[in-house]
Fold:
Amino acid sequence: MPTCPKCGTEVSEPIKVWELAPKGRKPVKIGLFKCPNCGTTFRKGVK
Ligand SMILES: [Zn+2]
Structure:
């Protein structure tokens, strides 16, 4: 489970997910997470 880089709170659900597909590489899914504790938003790869 991704954790907030600021306070370390675990965030279970991304508020947004999109696919990033660099040329010639496998697409990866990126999730945008928002920490319910401190409000920090951060991106993290999701599987
Ligand atoms: Zn936080």
Summary: The CA atoms of residues 29 and 47 lie 7 Å apart.
